[in-house]
Amino acid sequence: MSIRLLENTLKVNIYYDENDCAYDDNICVSIVEDCPEEEKIFRADETNLYLTPEQAIQLMQALKAATSESKLPANT
Length: 76
Known about the structure:
This protein is an alpha+beta fold. The chain has one domain. The chain is 22% helix and 32% strand. It has one helix and four strands, in the order E-E-E-E-H. It has one helix at residues 53-69, and strands spanning 2-5, 10-16, 27-33, 46-51. Strands 1-2-3-4 form a four-stranded antiparallel beta sheet. Strand 1 (2-5) and strand 2 (10-16) form a beta hairpin.
């Protein structure tokens, strides 16, 4: 799944990394920035965070909880 943020200059890719199937943390959250250097949030053009399934569930639950608390209607 790919999500574009910040006027399409920040791309978040979330996927199961088959190359890391031997490891517990094989779910990748890849953040790619396509903007001028002075506007970058991260130091690298691409930053990868690897999560365990349990951590991915916690992240999903935290996002869902924040969505529930938001004043904006959720798209379901």
